[in-house]
Design brief:
Length: 255
């Protein structure tokens, strides 16, 4: 099948795909932005409706590694299905990437961690109640959703570069409302270190397609009831912007 938009992505020959979460758009440099393909070129992709989420693939570089950025993701809480919100992952896989980095903004539930830092996802709790594999009988093994080997490489790079990189469990919820303090206590007792509204379905879809997956949460705020502040999307975006520089440094050192 010839599809000019997919061919443009394919011809970039990228090994790595990177999905950018809230406020992390600054990871794409101005130079890279010139080379992009809008989500609107792909009829199967819904358009993101959240401020801070642009919808396009960017053909970029990190050092000498070619990457495809997915800048702007769509979420279940926008009213889309699990299948729709993972369309971008299927396109990245069709474009030939072998490794996928998922990023997100998340609230911190683990009091030993701190907002403004990054957590590498070691495992997840899919609490969305759905899956992109719905309708198939694909009994996918998720024993190692987030590549152990790749995690070790990121950890080594973080240590060498003096970057604080926590590691923990990400709980993915439907949203769009933030959690109540009672829900945060429940999630903590279930083993969650960070809480967000994305990533888990994309990770499942990527593993189903055989991609190696890494995930990173930008810890933008204390989860509800832990800090003294109320939560706002603006705070999430601002903290994300500041922490993006650190992440960019980590990627430079790791890819
Ligand atoms: N909860 C859920 N999702 C989030 C949060 C949070 O506290 N912060 C950023 N995304």
């Amino acid at each position: 099948m010839s599809d000019p938009a997919l061919d443009r992505l394919r011809n970039w020959n990228a090994d790595v795909g990177i999905v950018l979460g809230s406020g992390l758009n600054v990871l794409v440099s101005a130079a890279d932005s010139a080379n992009s393909v809008g989500y609107s070129e792909f009829p199967e992709l819904p358009k993101p409706s959240v401020p801070g989420h642009t919808g396009r693939f960017v053909l970029g570089n990190i050092g000498s590694t070619r990457v495809l950025f997915a800048q702007g993701r769509v979420h279940l809480y926008e009213g889309h299905t699990a299948r729709q919100v993972t369309g971008g992952i299927r396109i990245l896989a069709a474009a030939g990437i072998k490794r996928l980095i998922l990023t997100n903004a998340a609230g911190v539930a683990n009091q030993n961690f701190s907002p403004g830092s990054w957590m590498m996802i070691s495992d997840h709790l899919n609490l969305t109640g759905t899956t992109p594999l719905l309708g198939s009988a694909q009994f996918l093994d998720l024993t190692e959703t987030y590549s152990k080997k790749w995690r070790a490489e990121f950890s080594r790079a973080a240590k060498a570069e003096n970057i604080t990189l926590y590691e923990g469990v990400y709980a993915g919820l439907l949203g769009p409302q933030y959690e109540t303090p009672a829900e945060v206590r429940m999630l903590r007792s279930l083993g969650a270190d960070a809480i967000g509204m994305s990533t888990v379905l994309e990770a499942i879809q990527a593993r189903a397609l055989g991609l190696e997956v890494a995930g990173f949460s930008c810890l933008t705020n204390w989860a509800a009831g832990i800090g003294s502040e109320n939560l706002s999307h603006e705070e999430v975006l601002e903290t994300g912007k500041a922490a993006a520089k650190t992440f960019s440094h980590l990627l430079d050192a790791s890819l």
